[in-house]
Amino acid sequence: MSFLKFFKKSIDKKSFEQLLADKEKQDSSEQPQSKETIKRSLHENLKKIREAFGNSSDIVTREIRIGRQGEIRVGIIYTDGLINSEANHNFVMESLMFELRRNEVDLKDLAGLTLLNYIKEMVLTVGSIEDVHDFNVITNAVLSGKVVLLFDGYEQGFAVEMKGGKERGVQETTTETTIRGPREGFTENLRVNTSLIRRKIKDHRLWIESKKVGKVTKTEVSIMYIKGIVREEVVQEVRSRIEQIDIDGILESGYIEELIQDDSYTPFPTIYNTERPDIVAGHLLEGRVAILVDGTPFVLTVPSIFVQFLQSPEDYYQRADISSLIRFLRFFGFFTALLAPSLYVAITTFHQEMLPTQLLISLAAQREGVPFPAFIEAFLMEIMLEILREAGLRMPRAIGQAVSIVGTLVVGTAAVDAGIVSAAMVIVVAFTAISSFMVSSYDLAITVRMLRFVFMGLAASFGLFGIILGLVALVLHLSSLRSFGVPYLSPMAPFTLADQKDVFIRLPRRLLIFRPRVFSSQQNTKREKSLFQNENQRKKK
Amino acid sequence: MLDNGKITANQYKMLVLLFTIGSSILVAPTALVNDAKQDAWIAIIFTVIISILLVLMYIKIYSIFPNMTLVEICELLLGKWIGKFAVALFLMYAFILSGELLREIGDFTTTQMMPDTPIDAIHIVFMGVVVMATLLGLEVIGRSSEIISLWLFILLAIYFIAILPQIKIGNLQPILGEGMKPILFGFYHFISLPYLELIVFLMIAPFVNHQKGAEKGFLVGVIIGGILLTFVVMFSILVLGVENTARQIYPSYALARKIEIGKFFQRVEVIMAGIWFLSIFYKLTISFYAFVLGLSQLFKIKDYRSITLPISMMLIVYAIAFHPNIVHFFEFVHNIWPLYSLTIGFLFPLILLGTALMKKRQRHVRGNR
Amino acid sequence: MWNIIGILFVSACIFIIEALLLLKHKLWKDFIVFIIFLFLGTGLSIARCINFPIPNPIELLTWIYQPLSEAVNKIFQ
Which residue segment(s) compose the domain that A300 sits in? Predict the structure, then answer.
């Protein structure tokens, strides 16, 4: 791993950049940015648009006539299913076709305005209108749920915001469930997602920047942060990394995650993703940057540190003492999920003397009929478990549960009865599996599942010595990671005493005055008044 | 100077601490008790106090040249050729130290934990992780040391608390029954094993981001390490007794075998093994890093990383080739190593300090004229 | 026999990983030092595999310090 990383680091940066620049030059020469303005003739324009879309059936190009005698011909272009058709009928078509005729407006004398300005300012009863002159802009507008109006005899048109169509509503999240806390989860619609966050943070300093990423999909990607709390250099870094993305399509935030992470050669997630608006709001308040991608309910937040993958939003909704204890339990769960089978293998293979005699005898009796060494036994069981888990995920939900019950109960018991594995091994594997569900982040849980096999291999060949070495190597690797400039293991390494209040334990909210130093910049207090002022006030009373 | 990243004063302190207790925590009681009998604890306290003076000398050298490694200081003060020769002597010390440490790991593991595994396999695997750490650089070594030392403190706390019920105060008497001579002999051995080796820290001190913090961290790390070692030696005498301790090769490990709380919590010597592996890992990593970095500065090459892998091959060979057997190893450590350490860890920096002060004075005098 | 093949394989891997980088950056001095140490490392490993005697600095040290060590031990006994 380290070699690879080193190798990657040492690749000549300059030549690489030059390569990229050359590639870009080629790209631009191949596809010259055609700036084609629209023609005067409506007929030609519509024909051209139809051709550009290959006469796709969902692109509606409708020609209507407006005015008292129908003297002006107007083209309406939109994508069926992407717009709110009812609003389109009521506010665009009706306004144009009906209002103009009913009011008997004299199209020659329009209160001193040109026809187009008159229509824009006095006829169309809709919110957002943009002027369009260019074919590329028109196609983009049509594809992003706008209604485009073109007028015969004018080299100008309007793009009217009319987004709509069927989308999944705000529902409860299924991947990150809590007992206490808001139930809502993000949806596939970027606007809905930003509104969910806006509703939680009503402050004008919550800024959103948007950008289209993906040459073909042209997916909207927004970055969100609270100006004044966030560190400027992190925002700058996020901006530049998203800018550098060169890809044809973005279908999920996982694409962005993979393309902007600091280090590709690591099994550990260095960017947090969540479906819950409350988590994102909490992260924004700590001074992190959220990256929202249109078309997926999963929102990324950066910078991310290791401990945060072992925390749950519930930690902040429950009482502090309970949350702290549960956090300890989760850390314990992390280590058991990682090490339990390998410890079992190491102790039963190399260090039997460590076990109390009674336990050793009972273990030996169980293992008597088992034909495999402990490592093979553990390996078989773990592989079987992973297969069951994956199968349960891919099956239809109703069958999935049946599979997992059949798998765990029936196969497990049968394997023990048949003498293929020992009962103790089944206990260890089951315990490991349950522990791995305690790791609150799915990404980290996958990593743990993977590394478990590495540790089992180490345990089988070098016993506890191998496990200790593996742990040291793991810590070294984790220490070398960074997420947007923040060391992955902070605030443990480098050690920051001030940030310890919210790592292994969560102190009562009264003591959580300062924002974590690793993320936030200038305005470091969470409250306007400091603790001491509060205390003083209390004393005065 | 090569760009290796910076470490914080706290990380430096942890590295010093880990270096001080690494390897010594397992074997120190035997060596001391052999020399000083039940007065070993007096010898160790005496040594810890003297070691502070030694560290003050290292700090003095560092504070005169806060931005230079030992190798660069040497070439600056002693001129090109004598300087290079002195550097070569120091680097040989760092290399032998690394080799001895690796051999110690191999010997311990094959005799106590994994009797069926070939010693070369242990060396290669352990060295693999050390090379990984060295390639990742000092910054990563420093950061990871903060996590590892946290684990270490937890393990040490469990170890010390669990051993408490086994103490027998009578084992300490008679105090000073044999006069001062044994204590001095114990001092002579003990100062050489962890303390004079601390000179390799002059290779990494310039990478601490804060000079005053580095000076303080060096001192505090050594003192905390000394206190921990004192505890281990005291417990060894108090629990095992003088004769039993002197007979053990790895007394702290034997001590952990005595732990028994209830019927279940017993045979937990693996805790001691864990403490020792973690600390000696850092000791080996630091001395190896100091050697590789020093070598790259001696040859004035750009990055120490390119020679790390070939040198690790040499180290794996020499870890075996240094000593034909474990008896030879212990004899060497007992008889030759203290003198060698005194030469490199005391005489050598003393000469450097003298030269530095003399040159400073000359410049001062010249400046006055 | 297999040991030697293994050692040569490892050396080749190290060469590929490091040397190409050094050459790419045109660090001739680094490259020369690297090659010297790689040869030393490989040579020593192979020598140890076939039990060929290799120079041992420990013997040198023992030779230098032995008289002094005996004197010190005499003082403390």
Answer: 167-304+518-541
Quote ipTM for the complex. Answer: 0.93
Average pLDDT of the residues of chain A: 83
Is the CB of A494 less than 8 angstroms away from the CB of B109?
no
Half-sphere exposure of A314 (CA within 13 A, CB side): 15
Contact C65 B300 (CB under 8 A): no
Which positions in chain A touch C21 (Cβ < 8 Å)?
Answer: 7, 10
What's the N-to-C CA distance of chain B in angstroms?
A: 34
Note whether A235 and A251 are same-domain residues. yes
Co-location of A395 and A341 in the same domain: yes
- Whether A139 and A249 map to the same domain: the answer is no
Interface test with A, best of B107, B112, B132 (most A CBs within 10 A): B132
Give the pLDDT confidence of A24-47 residue by residue, as tens digits.
554 444 444 556 788 888 888 888
Residues A237, A365, single domain; the answer is no
Q: Which chains touch A (3 or more CB pairs under 8 A)?
A: B, C
- The total domain count for chain A is 3
DSSP B238: I
CATH superfamily of B9-368: Amino acid/polyamine transporter I (1.20.1740.10)
Q: Starting from the edge strand earliest in sequence, which strands make up the sheet with A72-79, in order? A: A59-66, A72-79, A146-151, A157-161, A129-132
pLDDT one-digit tens code per residue, B171-228? 777 777 677 888 888 899 889 888 999 999 999 999 999 899 999 999 999 999 999 9
> Best mutation site among A335, A358, A465 for testing chain B: the one with the most B CBs within 10 Å?
A465
Q: What is the pLDDT of residues B14-30, one digit of tens each?
A: 999 999 998 888 888 88
Give chain B positions within 8 Å (CB) of A6: 135, 305
Domain boundary among A140, A161, A182: A161
DSSP character string of A398-436? HHHHHHHHIIIIIIHHHHHHTTSS-HHHHHHHHHHHHHH
Q: How do the domains of chain C map onto residue ranges?
A: 2-76
**What is the distance between the alpha carbons of residues A433 and A416, in angstroms, rounded to a whole number?**
18
pLDDT band for A352, please (50, 70, 90 cuts). Answer: confident
Residues A243 and A265 in one domain: yes
B273: nearest CA in chain A?
Answer: A465
Domain ranges across chain B: 9-368
- Give yes or no for C25 touching A (CB within 8 A): yes
| C-alpha–C-alpha distance, residues B309 and C38, integer Å | 8
Nearest chain C alpha carbon to B310: C38
Task: Identify all chain C residues contacting A7, using CB atoms and an 8 Å cutoff.
Answer: 17, 21
Note whether B321 contacts C48, CB cutoff 8 Å. Answer: yes
Residue A209 φ then ψ, to 5°: -120, 140
